[in-house]
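Q: Hi! First time doing this. I have a protein sequence and I read that you can turn it into a structure. Is that right? Here it is:
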Amino acid sequence: MKKILAFSGSNSSTSINEKLVDYTVSLLPKQAVKRIKLTEFPLPIFSEDLEKQEPYPIHLIQLKNEIKEADALLISVNEHNGAVSAFFKNYIDWLSRIEYKFLAGKKILLMSTSPGKRGGASALDYVKNVLPRFDGEIIESFSFPSFSENFSVEQNIVTNEVLRLGLHDVIQNFAHQIDV
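A: Yes, that's right. Below is the predicted 3D structure, encoded as structure tokens:
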């Protein structure tokens, strides 16, 4: 059984990307999934000056080790003003400084959601283009549009049948690919 590390790129206490991660994790009962929240690993805003003045933050080292121990990653990124959130980008910046190829050997399922019809597609596209630079292999990606219209938080289900089938197919393919 492969180890999957699952998290969102959001720091919001009401994050719909966190809800999407939770739902997706529930569909992987045959996998060893570790669910984390990036807010459990607080980091200052990256700067070269700060990097030169102090050793790497302990939370950064802990997060790097969590990623290193996993075989695969399940990540849902949020979007702010048509881009990936500054919160998530900060983690990428820090991780790439401590070890540039911090995603070496990792298979990744990328997702995004938003209240809008594009489902965070711009942030998803950004991350799909950036993570391979650090040796991550994007196996699957999924953009979930109009979250509140297509997902019941109370029931923890996708209410739109087409989206539910599409997401289930992506998850099934991801699970198959990481077992290969």
